[in-house]
Amino acid sequence: MNELFRSISLTGGFGHLVLAVACFLVAHSLTNLRPLRHRIEAVVGTAGFYAGYSVLSTVLLVWVIAAAIAAPTVILWAQQPWMRWAPSLIMPVACPLWVIGLTRPNPFSIGPGGAGFDPARPGILRLTRHPVVWGLGLWAGAHLVPNGTLAGVMLFAPLLILSVLGPRILDAKRRQSLGWEEWRRLADTVGGPVDWPALLGEIGPWRILAGLALVPVLMTLHPLVIGLSPFP
Fold it and tell me: How far apart are CA 120 and CA 106, in angstroms?
């Protein structure tokens, strides 16, 4: 699998890594081009647009990772033994956020959309309106710590910045699409102090367990796909 990633990387130079990162970031700005988005949705529908967008995002992320793996090694900071613990400690938080965010109706952010959303049982939205984005940010930040190479920074730093800015961007887009009054009504239902018993009950144990089960799967695949062991 690692050889496959290297074959995808094409040139293995920093110029190619910059191109891959730039394409990834540009693609994530396409949803802000409303005329273009409306034309695509008119042809394939809203569901088709988001399905295609998800596939495109995944393909571009694979390209970025492949280009980072093949880039020359330029060390910015030396890896210390404690740094390798960062991903192992953070991923059990990030993975459940991904699973929960992608399997619960959410009118605010990335996920299956708002169809079926019950404001009386908002689930993870009691904690954050953007669980998938924060999961991505935790993944990027945790992996940035032990990857002190120039390629590692070029890979994880933009994703971390995108995750920090993403909630504000998504909130602005949803306010525009839902209308201020509807967005405010929905946001008010999930705001305020977190009711932890209600939160855990609404999420459902299977989502939490599925997210935790994803961690060993990713750690097992990591040396096969990336070529490096994720264990401290």
Answer: 13
